[in-house]
């Protein structure tokens, strides 16, 4: 059986207004490009979505991960959307396209990439998560809870198909190294790393060997691109996206969504420089305007049918997430009251890649030794 690849590639190529949302013309531009490509046979199916100011391309195909042809399609799509953004003088047109020319692989060129290749199961429920005004490490807590926390995922305790646990691929995004660790056996070590979410990020989750699912096929993947690392300076937000497969030996749909009821604290709000609650919200309300936030996450639910995307369902639209939103708003008030003080503002070492060093430079020769 031919394996299906699910690619979610995203970029901010212009905000409307400011950094708050994506203009409908950008979505139309991307859709008409991808429709042409689909007709040519290079894609099985696609959806164009948005979260905040990020344009999100969801594509299915049979080319595998990291495929030059598919990445070129996404790049062309972002270039065309940039042209539309320039005509409308949208804010930061083309901001995440860090290079003028595509060089075969979109990784390291600005856009965020989350891709998985797998044999489509008898029934394949899959959730695409898209976040705005935050960073890849924002996924650490929810992904850990889905695949390793028995207080979140009942299946880890009571479903023999989940009971043996999962393997986490964790990246040190500063040192560009990775490690594979097993849960529950190495749970405390996993947490020792991923609690430091600006350095260690969960990249993928795999089933263990001997289970219902093939051990080499990822069941979750997160985009881990850090824009400042690619560009060498702060050029915008590394708003991440992720894909999670669900059910039949994997966390149930409700177990996949449950961690987001916390509205946990993440960094990346206002100027990429503040901590705030990650608010789960509907597609319609994913337009961060309160102090450019608070950070948002949307969840698009699909069933795959031979690579066709059946969906999306707007999963956080459910009123059962209303309380999480209320809580996020209360946390928003509390955090905002701290103004420029930590821990609302990020610690100094995380501000290194923002505009703050330019301000600090001005003050540096005013310092004299203390007694
Ligand atoms: C962008 C973001 C925003 C901007 C802020 C300042 O996604 O997080 O909070 O950093 O609006 O933007 P500039 O410097 O473009 O005026
Ligand atoms: Mg923007
Ligand atoms: Mg964004």
Structure characterization notes:
α1 (24-40) runs antiparallel to α2. A hairpin with a 4-residue loop joins β6 and β7 (177-183). Helix content is 27%, strand content 26%. It is built from eleven helices and 15 strands. With 371 residues, it is of the alpha+beta class. It has two domains: 1-119, Alpha-Beta Plaits; 121-357, no CATH class. The chain has helices at 24-40, 68-87, 140-148, 155-158, 187-194, 227-231, 253-257, 269-272, 322-336, 348-351, 356-364; strands at 4-11, 45-51, 54-61, 112-118, 124-132, 166-172, 177-183, 200-207, 220-222, 241-245, 265-268, 274-277, 279-280, 296-305, 308-314. The strands form three sheets. Strands 5, 6, 7, 8, 9, 10, 13, 14 and 15 form a nine-stranded mixed sheet that branches. Strands 2-3-1-4 form a four-stranded antiparallel sheet, covered by helices on one side. It binds fructose -6-phosphate and magnesium ion (MG) (2 copies). The site of fructose -6-phosphate (F6R) has 11 residues, from α8.
Short descriptors:
371 residues, alpha+beta, Alpha-Beta Plaits, nine-stranded mixed β-sheet, four-stranded antiparallel β-sheet, 15 strands, binds fructose -6-phosphate, binds magnesium ion
The small-molecule ligands in this entry are: fructose -6-phosphate, magnesium ion
H and E string: EHEEHEEHHEEHEEHEHEHEEEEHHH
Number of strands: 15
Structural class computed from helices and strand pairing: alpha+beta
Extract low-pLDDT stretches: none
In total, how many domains does the architecture comprise?
Answer: 2
Annotation field: number of helices: 11
Radius of gyration: 20 Å
* Proportion of residues in β-strands: 25-35%
Instruction: Look at the structure and give the mean pLDDT.
Output: 95
- Give the overall silhouette: globular
Largest sheet: 9 strands, mixed
Termini gap: 74 Å
Helix content: 25-40%
């Amino acid at each position: 059986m031919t394996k299906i690849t699910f690619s979610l590639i995203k970029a901010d190529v212009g905000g409307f207004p400011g950094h708050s949302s994506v203009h409908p013309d950008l979505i139309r531009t991307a859709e008409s490009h991808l429709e042409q490509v689909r007709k040519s046979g290079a894609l099985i199916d696609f959806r164009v979505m948005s979260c905040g100011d990020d344009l999100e391309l969801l594509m299915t195909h049979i080319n595998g991960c990291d495929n030059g042809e598919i990445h070129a399609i996404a790049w062309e799509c972002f270039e065309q959307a940039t042209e539309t953004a320039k005509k409308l003088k949208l804010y930061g047109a083309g901001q995440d396209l860090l290079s003028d020319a595509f060089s075969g692989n979109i990784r390291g060129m600005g856009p965020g990439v989350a891709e998985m290749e797998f044999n489509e199961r008898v029934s394949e429920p899959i959730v695409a998560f898209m976040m705005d005004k935050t960073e890849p490490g924002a996924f650490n807590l929810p992904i850990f809870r889905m695949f390793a926390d028995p207080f979140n995922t009942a299946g880890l305790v009571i479903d023999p198909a989940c009971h043996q646990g999962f393997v986490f691929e964790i990246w040190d995004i500063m040192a560009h190294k990775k490690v594979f660790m097993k849960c529950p056996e190495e749970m405390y070590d996993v947490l020792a790393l991923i609690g430091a979410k600006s350095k260690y990020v969960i990249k993928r989750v795999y089933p263990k060997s001997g289970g219902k699912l093939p051990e080499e096929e990822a069941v979750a993947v997160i985009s881990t691109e850090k824009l400042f690392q690619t560009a060498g300076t702060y050029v915008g937000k590394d708003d991440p996206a992720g894909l999670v497969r669900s059910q039949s030996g994997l966390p149930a749909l409700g177990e996949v969504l449950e961690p987001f009821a916390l509205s946990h604290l993440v960094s990346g709000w206002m100027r990429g420089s503040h901590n705030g609650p990650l608010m789960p919200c509907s597609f319609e309300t994913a337009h961060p305007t309160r102090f450019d936030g608070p950070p948002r996450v949307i969840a698009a639910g699909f069933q795959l049918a031979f690579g066709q995307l059946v969906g999306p369902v707007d999963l956080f639209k459910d009123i059962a997430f209303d309380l999480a939103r209320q809580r996020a708003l209360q946390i928003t008030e509390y955090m905002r009251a701290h103004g420029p003080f930590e821990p609302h503002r990020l610690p100094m070492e995380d501000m290194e890649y923002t505009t703050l060093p330019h301000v600090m430079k001005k003050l540096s020769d005013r310092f004299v030794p203390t007694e």
